[in-house]
Write a structure and sequence with these properties.
Strand content: 15-25%
Strand order of the largest sheet: 4-5-3-6
CATH architecture: 2-Layer Sandwich
CATH topology: Alpha-Beta Plaits
Distance between the termini: 17 Å
CATH superfamily: Transposase IS200-like
Oligomer: single chain
Order of helices and strands: HHEEEHEEHEH
Structural class: alpha+beta
Largest sheet: 4 strands, antiparallel
Radius of gyration: 16 Å
CATH class: Alpha Beta
Length: 159
């Protein structure tokens, strides 16, 4: 099954670009200030459920997943810029603080969402784990579709 572009594939990209453009005018809003740091670190994450199961086709899973991502990110002081879920993978655009690595961020999101979703939706308990260990991360909003499609096609052949 080839990944086919849906009408909203570029929606996240444009949301992220609009986010950047609307804050470029005022440096205080563009960069995140903490006691000892001034930073602008934004990540684009893509990850898949194990065996590319179409978990987001299950009623209410997508909505609950987004709620969990917001809760986890709020606890880590990570800003949720945009989330888009497809039937068998998800895209997250997040604004991070320098103290957190990309693997820390995605690890916490996967861990919490797996634990909560598997508790609330028993049909997700069939496999050993909900998410693959792999994930795609980029610091650029203009990551090519080819790069993401290559990552997704590799996930079809892995467990």
């Amino acid at each position: 099954m080839n990944y086919q572009r849906k009408p909203f594939d570029f929606l996240i990209f444009f949301v992220a670009v609009d986010y950047i453009n609307c804050y470029n005018e005022n440096m205080e809003l563009e960069y995140r200030r903490k006691k000892t740091t001034l930073s602008l670190i934004n990540y684009h994450f893509v990850f898949c459920p194990r065996y590319r199961r179409k978990i987001f086709n299950i009623p209410k899973v997508e909505t609950r997943f987004m709620e969990i991502v917001h809760e986890v990110c709020d606890a880590m002081e990570v800003e949720v810029i945009a989330i888009k879920c497809y039937e068998d993978h998800t895209h997250l655009f997040l604004g991070a603080i320098p103290e957190l690595s990309p693997s820390d961020i995605v690890g916490r999101i996967k861990h919490q969402s797996s634990r909560i979703l598997r508790k609330e939706f028993t049909e997700l308990n069939k496999a050993v784990s909900l998410w693959t260990r792999a994930f795609f991360v980029s610091t650029s909003y203009d990551t090519s579709d080819d790069t993401i499609n290559h990552y997704l096609s590799e996930q079809k052949t892995r467990g």
